[in-house]
Here is the input.
Amino acid sequence: MDDVSGELLAAVREIRDLIRLMAEPAIAERDRKLREKLREIVGRSDRVAKSVLLMNGTRNQRDIHREVGINEGQLSTIVKQLKANQLLAGDGKQPQLAISIPSNFFEGTDE
Here is the structure.
């Protein structure tokens, strides 16, 4: 039974990923203004972009700082800016983006 459950879960996740891929154009249009603001806040910094991509609610700011190597003060400032622009859900201690973005959203940024 455990093997069947694992296969079923894997199939459901694959379906979810395919639906997200198909829905991305509609999501992008719905969130266009918020995504533009997100790009404005992040700028062209690769470290900031990587930090934002890690903001899924499972890591606190210290974890993100350690994983990416971004300055703690800079990360704190970014979190405050995201929160002020309604781009974060929750309190910001474990930042989670309020909008969905694809993993390649910040391609073309550089340090």
